[in-house]
Write a structure and sequence with these properties.
- The chain is of the alpha/beta class.
- It has a domain of 103 residues: Helicase, Ruva Protein, domain 3.
- The chain has 14 helices and 13 strands.
- The chain has a 5-stranded parallel sheet. A two-stranded parallel sheet has the order 2-11.
- A hairpin with a 2-residue loop joins strand 7 and strand 8.
Length: 330
């Protein structure tokens, strides 16, 4: 094997992941103004191999964020516009009769891509939403007794509007639990908003975005993030935070065990993005609200954007009850 080929297969170091993540972030910021923290969060979740739910009011750039991430990575991208009449087979694919061979052949649906943008996911029926459960959890599709593996990496970025309730279906709890994180973008500051208006005066910046990381390199970055060291007290801290939500009187449903697993995995990716080979308690704390809040149900739930703020506040209250471990490194 040539030396250059061996180098291409060598494990990436955390500092290599940080450089790749910085390149993706710089590319995305060309079209996402004033959302630095949101951009970094979306990259972190991609490297954690976790799916993302972007939930916010109309017009703040939810779909643009997903498209910018997809355009920055040299991978296959499909967008699914979720509507009330969308069928599960429209997502996963279905057997199609081939006149030439006189046999049924599986025709893959748009879910067969590295990055899938599920736009306005809550406009589809619960039955169609359920078509994503197996895809997001196991990376495969089962149709007519046959199983088909999805591409790697496989990453779902879904968007939904928490205000418009007419003609929508709330995501199933099982569906929400499969999203590693929920991101709320918020409005850009005044300077960023002016810059956005100027940039779109004559052209659409997303059309100029080109990939800065190849799909193969993205997979190596994901593998490197997975190898980040987590000390046992830090791992226990993540579990304790998830368990604290289950005893909170403000919640009728706490975070699942999957939530604790996702929190640790996301913290590894955050450490890698910052060029560290180990997870700090700060990584767990910095991601706890993003990873846990969309999975819990308040005893007296609010509606719309207030529900997002309410869940975040409850998670912060739970965090205040859990002792923070002394930072340990590898």
């Amino acid at each position: 094997m040539e030396r250059s080929e061996r180098a291409a297969l060598d494990p990436l170091r955390p500092e290599d992941v940080a450089l790749g993540a910085a390149a993706i972030a710089a590319n995305m910021r060309r079209v996402i103004a004033g959302q630095g923290g949101t951009v970094e969060l979306s990259i972190t979740m991609f490297l954690a191999h976790g799916h993302v739910l972007i939930e916010d009011v109309p017009g703040v750039g939810k779909t643009m964020l997903a498209k910018a991430l997809a355009a920055s990575i040299g991978a296959s991208v499909k967008r699914i516009q979720f509507t009330p009449d969308l069928l599960p087979s429209d997502v996963t694919g279905a057997p199609i009769f081939n006149q030439a061979t006189r046999q049924f052949e599986f025709e893959p649906g748009p879910i067969f891509a590295n990055i899938v943008i599920a736009d306005e996911i809550n406009r589809a029926s619960p039955r169609t939403q359920s078509a994503l459960l197996e895809c997001m959890e196991e990376g495969q599709v089962s149709v007519e007794g046959a199983t088909y593996a999805l591409q790697k990496p496989f990453h779902v970025v879904a968007t939904q509007n928490p205000i418009d309730m007419e003609g929508t279906h709330a995501l199933l709890e099982a569906q929400r639990d499969r999203f590693m994180a929920r991101i709320s973008m918020g409005y850009p500051d005044e300077a960023a908003e002016r810059a956005m208006v100027r940039a779109r005066d004559l052209a659409e910046p997303i059309d100029t975005i080109r990939p800065v990381v190849a799909a193969r390199d993205a997979l190596r970055m994901i593998e490197a993030a997975r190898r980040i060291y987590v000390a046992e007290p830090v791992r226990d801290y993540a579990v304790a935070l998830a368990r604290a939500t289950r005893t909170s009187p403000a919640l009728s449903l706490g975070a699942s065990p999957r939530a604790g697993l996702h929190l640790v995995t996301a913290a590894k990716a955050r450490a890698a993005v910052q060029g560290r080979a180990y997870v700090l308690p700060d990584d767990i704390q910095g991601l706890a609200e993003t990873v846990l809040a969309h999975r819990v149900v308040a005893t007296t739930p609010a509606r719309g954007p207030e529900a997002i703020a309410q869940a975040g506040a409850i998670i912060r209250d739970c965090m205040a009850t859990v002792p923070v471990p002394v930072p340990l490194t590898a």
